[in-house]
Specification:
10-stranded antiparallel sheet; 2 helices; 9% helix
Length: 233
């Protein structure tokens, strides 16, 4: 796997590519009546853009990503798929407390690259109200409640729309020697900052940094635990 990063606040661009040998390309389940498994080489390529800034007295985060998988087997053309995803969140700090509220929308679309309908392809759309509680720079708890619409392209009998709720906690379990001075920790905490206008003074610059850091939650690194409970209807 090869990965490249370009960090330039307030935008982060990440690209990755790799190859693998897959012994079960079609994800066939084991069992007495299961189909024969197909193995083949596979390649992956993807990119992600993360942009953060300030607007309407709050902070926003926009993430766009794509990840494609290509299998070197003409009999499994439906396995050549790409996932397109986007996520937009806006949060505003509530007074001087470490609490932020806002909203978010998300979209994901898995598409086939070489056949009419790809294997396990789907579309997922959602909108949420968000509440973020920050215990410290390394502890963030996020509550979300909203609605989801899921479409399973190979079989629409699995389509559903309904409410969804989730709770997510982001914790720093470990960081390299040197703490925040280490490169990986600096990339994680630094990507939270965003500057959209030039500060008028040093005091104004400090106020801008405090406001944006309070409104925008840190990226989920290096560890995150999420619990999601959708209710279909």
């Amino acid at each position: 796997m090869v990965r490249g990063d370009a960090y330039a606040s307030p935008t982060t661009v990440t690209a990755e590519a790799g190859a693998e040998g897959d012994t079960n390309v079609q994800r066939v389940e084991t069992g007495p009546s299961s189909e024969a498994r197909v193995g083949a080489p596979a390649a992956r390529v993807g990119a992600k853009v993360d942009h953060r800034g300030a607007i309407w007295r709050g902070g926003y985060a926009l993430q766009l990503s794509t990840l494609a998988r290509l299998v070197a087997d003409s009999e499994t053309r439906s396995e050549n798929v790409a996932l397109l995803a986007g996520d937009l969140r806006w949060l505003r700090a509530i007074g001087s407390r470490p609490v932020s509220a806002g909203a978010g929308i998300t979209a994901a679309d898995a598409i086939s690259l070489t056949s009419e309908t790809g294997a396990r392809t789907f579309t997922n759309l959602g909108a949420d109200a968000l509440l973020v509680l920050r215990g410290s720079e390394t502890r963030v708890l996020t509550f979300a409640a909203g609605v989801r619409r899921f479409t399973y392209k190979p079989d629409h009998g699995y389509d559903w729309i309904g409410p969804a709720a989730s709770a997510r906690i982001d914790l720093t379990l470990w960081e390299p020697a040197g703490g925040r001075g280490a490169s990986s920790s600096r990339r994680c905490s630094g990507s939270r900052r965003a500057h959209t206008t030039a500060p008028r003074s040093r005091a104004h610059a400090r106020a801008m940094r405090r406001r944006i850091r309070t409104a925008l939650p840190a990226p989920p690194c290096p560890a995150a635990i999420a619990i999601t409970a959708p209710a279909s209807s």
